[in-house]
Amino acid sequence: MATTALRPAATHRSGLYEWLTTTDHKKIGILYTFNSLILFLVGGIFALAVRTELAQSGLQFMTEATYNQMFTMHASVMIFWVVIPFLAGFGNYLVPLMIGAPDMAFPRINALSFWLLPLSAMIAIMGFPLGGAAAAGWTSYSPLAQSAFSKGYGTDLWIVALTLVGTSSILGAINFLVTIFKMRAPGMTLFRMPVFVWTIMVTSVLVLMGTPVLTSALVMLYIDRNFGGSFFNTALAGGNAILWQNVFWFYSHPAVYIMILPAMGIVSEVIPTFSRKPLFGYKAFVFATAGIGALGFSVWAHHMFTTGAVYLPFFSLMTFLIAVPTGVKMFNWVATMFRGKIRFTTAMLFAVGFLSLFLIGGINGAFLASVPVDYHVHATYFIVAHIHYVLFGGSIMGVFAGLYYWWPKMFGRKLNEGLGKIHFVGTFIGMNLTFFPMHLMGTSGMPRRIADYSATAGWNDLNLLATIGGFTIAAVMLPFLWNVFITLRGGEPAGDDPWEGNTLEWATSSPPPPYNFDHLPPIRSERPVFDRRHANDGPALPVGH
Amino acid sequence: MIMRPRRALLGGFLFGGLGVVYGLLSHDWGGVTMLLALGVAMGLLGFVLMAASPRGDETE
Amino acid sequence: MATNSSAIAPHVTARGESRAHAQGGISNPILGMILFIVSEVMFFAGLFAAYFNVRLNATQWPPFVNEQPFEGFSLHTLEHVPVAATLTAILVLSSVTMQLAVRAIRRGDRTGFLRNTGVTLVLGVIFLAGQLWDYRGLHFGITDTAFGSTFYTLTGFHGAHVLAGAIMLSVLLYRGMAGQFSAKHHDAVEATSIYWHFVDVVWIALFSTLYLL
Questions:
Q1: For chain C, which has fewer Cβ within 10 Å, the N-terminal or C-terminal residue?
Q2: Mean of the pLDDT values across residues A345-368?
Q3: pLDDT digits (tens, 9 = 90+) for A453-487
């Protein structure tokens, strides 16, 4: 059922000016998406540089100093300028639509939040031509990050850039929370909101509480480096290098939940649509999300087990506990699919891929919660395996699922399914090829962040395999980019609701008009569009809560 | 879900309690400070979000 | 079907009021300011965490310099506590005048609002000047061990927040004189006052921690 969209009289604004000055959450969401996509390629190139160097023993292509910049900037770009903004972009686009609002609460601050991102990315990357980018790892531990050991501007540019990203995130979180709590359409109670909106809400709380702590750590590091401070500088009196780790991880652990919860939200929208069943255990899911958010603040020192400065049992216990709500979600997703009528569209493939890969990441994470195991594999490639299974296998797979699912809503045309399936298969295989060997590399002792390794350590084949996997992932980005290109240029219109979805974004045109909705369907459950589609199917079933 | 705003303060006490427990078990005063501040912040957050939420006429 | 709001802009009632006002809740901009303050609490939490960590892990606090106790680090003396206490009193007083300003505009008393806002601003500026004067009387800098780093960072960032608040108060004065506030529409005043009270609370924590403990 197509809705007609009122088109207000066109104002004479050139396309570029419109995009540069827009405060429309949908355009801003698209800007976030493209910014992240471009920076994903940048971060990916850094990764390929790392993998190319590590394919064989011996330093073939770069100096150690350059290598350090590669892995530092790969991680920093991927975390702060790709994954977090990808998910914020989806939130921006979808949250007002899903709750039946005309825009976000603070549209101009929304635009500011976006534009801080390309600006800060450029600041961080400026390090390269100015004597070397940051090279102390994305975790920037002292004393390595101090001015005596990280000379030059790179680290300082990184600090400034991250402070701007943090500001962007915090403003975004404020925007999301006010929007969600104050601008829901009539009938849209909190427990009728799509799960994706719940995940954005909890994520926004984590951002609001955690990011400022990172800002404080960055400020203190900057003072150490540039004003002779001695917060983390053990050379001078009173400084404490472990303090950096403590404050840094207090943010950076919730950061990983910031990166996964919205991806879980995306998957929770995709799976019900393509299983033709409602999400199993909606309320349990909401409470599990809140539980993960809350527990996420009490586990930070599990990154510091080996420092000797941590009360181990507390953090080990809390880390094991977090597996519980996460497990609840896995069961809910699988139970949603059970006995459903499943359509394996590309979006669904990425969502199911998420389930399997995130499961592996969760399991190897549970191993890390055990202190003795962590003592053995801390700072080895086992950790690199864990990180990438949850962030690539989890967050990025979730992002791709969301892209294929909501692309028709954003641009009016579906992405090509054939190319999409090639993209999925290549990514899934490449990802496992790259990161599964890293479990073995880690348990056999290969440390992380090393530019080179001994030819007789027994890691040669595993590294070569991982590099082949890395290039496979890179290679299948090409059909994806081609897909984006041809879809933007032309193709069959998708219509309002090409997938027979459940939630309000499918109740308006594709793309929606500037004010989002001509007409909202009645909201009596968490599936208003489904209810409207089946309104004439027979006697009314008890619905809503 | 309509919740009395004061109930939201419980969330803050949860983190405050966690901070106290952590303080008793470890000597990480930095961590204790951050957890206690989190308790204050969470309590305030929960309270204000609940107080700001529209209530009552949600049956439309 | 919703009868008292449009589908297009459900947050606006048929009478054009923001739904929050219609229901007597907290308006969007004020909620936004409170959430911002929540984030600022955590920013200062990180700085305080560093302070407590450094202080309570030190074998000697204040730290020795060149293995000798350093008199300059003593903030408990008669020289410094009264100054800091006076600054505290000034800031607390400014919070009172700020609240008086809010009360005034809530009942439409524009003159009272302007007068009290002006006094608040003046007190805030006096606080900043006093802070700088106190700095001049101190015998250590930011480079003098973690004591100096934590002291100047904590008080410095607080001072920066006071400065930002002073700018916000100036904007309020300007807008107030242009007649932009009324009993029904004065969100910016409420939001600024909440921010100002927060800055005051942080100072009380700072004063207690740095000068008294």
A1: N
A2: 97
A3: 999 999 999 999 999 999 999 999 999 999 999 99
Task: Note whether B38 contacts A297, CB cutoff 8 Å.
Answer: yes
d(CA C67, CA A290): 51
Q: Which of C1, C41, C49 is nearest residue B40 as measured by Cβ atoms?
A: C41
Tell me the two tokens of residue A118.
Answer: 């390309």
- Which chain A residue is nearest to residue B37, measuring alpha carbons? A209
Residue carrying the six token digits 């100002």: C196
Residue C113 and residue C178 in contact, taking contact as beta carbons nearer than 8 Å: no
CA angle A531–A536–A538, rounded 5-degree value: 100
Q: What is the pLDDT of residue B30?
A: 93
Q: How many CB atoms lie within 10 A of CB B43?
A: 21
Signed CA dihedral, A215, A218, A224, A230: sign only: positive
pLDDT at position C20, please? 46
Residues in chain B within 8 Å Cβ distance of A182: 52-54
A43 Cβ partners below 8 Å, 6+ apart? A73, A74, A77, A78, A81, A82
Taking each helix axis from N to C end, the angle separating B5-25 and B29-52, rounded to the nearest 10 degrees, works out to 170
Residues A230-287 pLDDT 10s: 999 876 678 889 999 999 999 999 999 999 999 999 999 999 999 999 999 999 999 9
What would be the CATH architecture of the domain defined by C27-212? Up-down Bundle (1.20)
Picking from C38, C53, C57, the nearest residue to B45 by CB comes out as: C38
Sequence spans of domains, chain A: 20-533
In single-letter form, the type of residue at position C78 comes to L
Digit-coded pLDDT (tens) for A100-142: 999 999 999 999 999 999 999 999 999 999 999 999 999 999 9
Q: For residue B16, what is the nearest residue in chain A, using CA coordinates?
A: A298
Q: Which of A181, A228, A238 sits opposite C54 (nearest CB)?
A: A238
Tell me the shortest Cα–Cα distance from B1 to chain A, in angstroms: 6
Nearest to C94 by CA among C169, C178, C156: C169
In this prediction the ipTM stands at 0.93
**What is the mean pLDDT of the segment spanning C47-53?**
95
Cα–Cα distances in Å, from A326 out to A257, A261, A382, B15? 11, 10, 21, 20
Place of tokens 């229901």: C23
Secondary-structure class of domain A20-533 per CATH: mainly alpha
Packing angle of the helix pair A282-295, A195-226 (nearest 10 deg): 10
User: Which residues 165-224 of chain A have a CB within 8 Å of chain C?
Assistant: 170, 173-175, 177-178, 181-187, 208-217, 219-220, 223-224
Name chain C contacts of A170, Cβ cutoff 8 Å: 36, 39
Mutate: best of C3, C36, C37, C42, partner A, most A CBs <10 A: C42
Of A101, A177, A208, the CB nearest to C10: A101
Contact check, Cβ <8 Å, C145/A237: yes
Once rounded to an integer, what is the mean pLDDT over residues A199-226? 97
**Closest listed residue to residue A316, CA positions, set A298, A290, A292:** A298
List CB contacts (< 8 A) between A226 and chain C.
none
Cα gap A288→A266, rounded to integer Å: 15
Confidence at C170, pLDDT banded by 50, 70, 90: very high
**pLDDT for the residue numbered B3:** 65
Of B42, B33, B48, B52, the C-alpha closest to B11 is: B42
The CA-to-CA distance between both ends of chain C, in Å, stands at 61
